[in-house]
Automatic annotation (TrEMBL):
SMART domains in the record: AAA
Signal peptide per UniProt: none
Protein name listed in UniProt: ABC transporter domain-containing protein
Natural source organism: Sporichthya brevicatena
Region Disordered: start-end pairs: 254-320
């Protein structure tokens, strides 16, 4: 099962350039969270900070009672075994076939015999649908297959936390949909805490339990999926609905003149909140909330047509 990650007051700079400051959020154990934000806002930097590859200037990251920002390298090495990471391009070793790529963490971090390693590798490759491709080199694979191979490698140590750095990068919409379904099924099967950095709005709207948005060197909002998808906050609304009107510009934030020119522009209505993606077997994840529950509990009327046009979309009280 996954573990909770408690982040408090996290600040990171490179020289005089502040990446983000005072980032505070809790990634609930066993849930899927998505982190959004304009390009260049430090989403990947946050992932590297979570695994201890970068040290923050201030703040804490507490996992299983340990603040990894203050651990010695030896202790940090042990905590990293809780993590599995899928990098943007899979980060596979080009000279190794898929079997050896997936087996690498087991050979590096465990004392398992080759027969034990073979059993684990086959299990994980079966999980991501790559049985039969063990002898292929990364250069012989499609982008989607490389992503799945990278995911199999991230899973071999049975991590409690899985980080995805733009898993949809370079994939077409169909393969992105397959990968999203794989993530949801994986969460149901092993209960890991999952954080996905993505720019894909459909992924953000349908996959996670929680959504966060980094903007202008701070965390603009983080909370349950329905909270952000029904939000009237300008930066959240602009990003999630892919609008040009709002505080985000080509260079992250617009200047005062641009914002003044847009002041009287009428924003389009929020789109309906879609149903959350279900596991393939149709059984809800253990932490999955009923559609409309958050809106009902907080007295929010979601956009018309939300949740597949059910009564919940029209009357939040129907969710209770």
């Amino acid at each position: 099962m996954g573990v909770e990650i408690d982040i408090r007051g996290l600040t990171k700079s490179f020289g005089r350039q502040v990446i983000w400051r005072d980032v505070t959020l809790t990634l609930p154990a066993g849930e899927i969270s998505v982190l959004l934000g304009p390009s260049g806002t430090g989403k990947s930097v946050l992932l590297k900070t979570l695994v201890g590859l970068l040290r923050p200037d201030a703040g804490s990251i507490v996992i299983e009672g340990q603040d990894i920002c203050r651990l010695k390298e030896r202790d940090l090495y042990e905590v990293r075994k809780l993590f599995g990471v899928l990098f943007q391009d899979g980060a596979l070793f080009g000279s190794m076939n898929l079997y050896d790529n997936v087996a690498f963490p087991l050979r590096e971090h465990t004392r398992k015999s080759e027969s034990e390693i073979r059993a684990v590798v086959r299990e994980k490759m079966d999980l991501v649908g790559l049985v039969g491709a063990e002898d292929k080199l990364p250069g012989e694979l499609s982008g989607g297959m490389r992503k799945r191979a990278g995911l199999a490698r991230a899973l071999v140590l049975d991590p409690k936390i899985i980080l995805f750095d733009e898993p949809d990068s370079g994939l077409d919409p169909v393969r992105t949909a397959f990968l999203n379904q794989l993530i949801v099924d994986l969460n149901q099967r092993i209960g890991a805490t999952i954080l996905i950095v993505t720019h894909d709005i459909n992924t953000a709207r349908t996959v996670p339990d929680n959504i966060g948005l980094l903007y202008h060197r701070h965390l603009a909002m983080f909370g349950p999926r329905e909270m952000l998808l029904s939000s009237e906050e300008s930066v959240v609304r602009q990003f999630l609905n892919a609008q040009r009107v709002g505080p985000i510009g080509m260079s992250e934030e617009k200047d005062a003149d641009e914002l003044a020119a847009e002041r009287d522009t009428e924003l389009p209505p929020l789109p309906p909140i879609p149903l959350q993606m279900m596991p393939s077997d149709g059984v809800p994840r253990s932490r999955q909330r009923p559609p409309g529950q958050w809106c009902a509990e907080n007295g929010i009327v979601p956009p018309a047509g939300s949740f597949g046009g059910s009564d919940v979309g029209a009357d939040p009280a129907a969710a209770l």
